[in-house]
Amino acid sequence: MIDVQDLTKEYGNVAAVSKATFRIGAGEIVGFLGPNGAGKSTTIRMLTGYLPATSGAASIDGFDVFRKGNEVRARVGYLPENVPLYSDLRVIEFLRFRAQQKLVPASERRARIDYVMSRCALTERQRSVIATLSRGFRQRVGFADALIANPKVLILDEPTSGFDPLQRREMLDLIHGLVAEGKTTILFSSHILSEVQAVSKRLLVIAKGKIVADGGSEDLIRKFGENQYHIEALAGEAPARELLESIPGIVQVAKAAEAPAPGGVRYTITAKHGDDPRDAISEAFMKRGIRVRELASDRTPLETIFARLVSGAELETAAVAATEGVAAA
Amino acid sequence: MIRNTVLIAKKELLSYFVSPVTYVVAGLFFLTNALFFYLFIKEARGDFEAITGYFFSWLGFWFLALFIPPIITMRLVADELRLGTIEMLMTAPSSDLGVITGKFFAAQLYSFLLWAPTPILFMIAQWSGATFDWGIIWAGYLGAILVYSLFCAIGIFTSALSDSPLLSMLLALVFELALLFLMFLRSYSSAPYAEVISERYSLWHIMSETLLRGIVNTSHIVFLVSLTALFLFLATRALEFRRWK
Questions:
Q1: Sheet of strand A76-79, all strands in order from the earlier edge strand to the far edge
Q2: Residue A254 or A98, more confident
């Protein structure tokens, strides 16, 4: 549904977005994650046809974003960051204007406006002048506007920024509702990981204008996290360590920071990428008659991975290449 | 494009309708214009026929023409840029030209509505004994409509140049004054083109020397309308440029 190839935007010599490539299938929901200033809004503005790209290509529903702008615009519902609205109009006047502008047929207009207003809980405030609305309500008006032409693709730029937790919940529920229906392809950006995780299975991580990761949270953990485990066993230090080191696939064995129970040992184990050595470990320990009290995977939390990905985009790409090399060897 | 123009024009008229500024501007216009009319009648000293056209070419007329259209148009595009609503507008199926012409027609209609009740002033004066050449009065109105349209187009162009309404108003004044005072070129230069430009293209000259003698010169109308179209075209370009830079 959304197809982006080497999309680049340069301001003078500074690349705001460089060679972004990704593909989003119909009905998919993707969280576009990155710190402030990473290039999220620039990418989104290019996708919605507001900003021209320096180079690269993008298409939505098969229509070139830069050549068939109006075709694309008719298919995309877009909620810009900061939700710009005509503050002198009433909610209903604004939505009526937007419905007309987005070519909603006259016969369906009334029903469509009523539908988006009830969906975004705006019906009671329809006569309010937009200037008098609170931040949360303004965001809902923007969301109603994005939905008004029943778009195939919904692009939301930081839909929850500046919200209190309750408003955030409401907005995420709105998005959830659409996801459940499964008719809309959604790309939404955020700099808050938990928010993206709450709604979408797939994450697209951008940092310093580059797409640094793309996949489900499991994929990202597997790809970018360390493959670490910890074990606690009732055994002497030397034999336990020796035993662990003899198991193929284990790269490193280190004493765990946490103190073991009396008479036991506790180790942190790093295994090769993609390997799960737990079966081999328990088997080996059982053969020797050593009692294992604890054996578990220490998954790197997604937060840590995200923080790492965005803090050193270039550095991390190199590191990933290196670890992948290790895994392949 | 036309659908979009009509839609934007309707939206802008709605915005005018709900804005208190609209009514303050209208009130000031009516008050000032009536005051100028009073001074004009006094100036006539009974000989109304001779100075009929003067109402559409003296300082009072130009004072209002210089200020009213920029005040009406200054926020039309600048506010969209300042508040970011332009992004919303441009990511819906629309065209830059549609946006510009829509805003232009709204401003134009508003300025025409300001002038619409003013023939009453002449009627009242006539009812109390003055006599006018109505042909010259209607020529004056034609000129006023053309000049206000041109100044609205200039206002929209300068509004698209910056996101500050005040700056766009000042810029519009610069353009307007330049066009108005082209006639003084003659006084500063003896080159043949200076004479021609002063004669043909100064707004002051067009209003006072031709229209108000009751001579409706097609070339002058074409000139004013083309200039209006040119500024609308430039406004479209300015809007486009802001996105492409």
A1: A76-79, A153-157, A185-190, A29-33, A202-207, A210-216
A2: A98
CB atoms under 10 Å from CB of A177, counted, come to: 10
State the Cα torsion B98-B104-B108-B109 to the nearest 10°: 40
- The reply to whether A270 touches chain B by the CB within 8 Å rule is no
Cβ contact (<8 Å) for B93 and A49? no
A48–B88 C-beta distance less than 8 A: no
Which tokens is A126 given? Answer: 């329809």
Does residue B243 sit at the A interface (CB-CB below 8 Å)?
A: yes
For residue A105 the two structure tokens come to 């047929």
Q: A154-207, pLDDT tens digit by residue?
A: 999 988 877 778 878 888 888 888 888 888 899 989 888 888 888 888 888 888
Q: Is the dihedral of CA A71, A77, A79, A85 positive or negative?
A: positive
Domain edges within chain A:
2-220, 226-298
Minimum CA–CA partner of A49 in chain B:
B91
Asked if A277 and A247 count as a contact pair (C-beta separation under 8 A), the reply is yes
Question: Is the separation of the CB atoms in B32 and B127 below 8 Å?
Answer: no
Contact B87 A80 (CB under 8 A): yes
The residue segments making up the domain with residue B163 are 2-244
Say whether residue B91 is in contact with chain A using an 8 A CB cutoff.
Answer: yes
CA nearest A258: which of A283, A284, A294?
Answer: A294
Q: Is B93 on the interface with A (CB under 8 A)?
A: yes
What is the per-residue pLDDT across A79-128, written as a single tens digit (0 to 9) for each?
A: 998 889 999 999 999 999 999 999 899 999 999 999 999 988 899 998 99
Chain B contact for A51 (CB, 8 A cutoff): yes
Of B68, B103, B62, the residue nearest B86 (C-alpha): B103
Residues in chain B within 8 Å Cβ distance of A87: 83
Domain total of chain B? 1
Min Cα–Cα distance to chain B from A139, Å: 13
Query: Mean pLDDT for chain B?
Result: 87
| Interface residue of B88, B97, B243 to substitute, partner A, most A CBs within 10 Å | B88
The Cα–Cα gap between A276 and A156 comes to: 38
CB-based contact (8 Å) between A145 and chain B? Answer: yes
Region A226-298: CATH code: 3.30.70.100
pLDDT one-digit tens code per residue, B98-121: 999 999 999 999 999 999 999 998
- pLDDT surpasses 80 at A141: yes
- Out of A70, A84, A88, the one facing B84 most closely (by C-beta) is A84
CATH number of the structural domain A2-220 = 3.40.50.300
> Which of the four pLDDT bands, split at 50, 70 and 90, describes residue B186?
low
Q: Which of B87, B90, B96 to mutate to test binding with chain A, by most A CBs within 10 Å of its CB?
A: B87
Instruction: Give me the pLDDT at residue B245, please.
Output: 56
B93 → closest Cβ in A52, A73, A93: A73
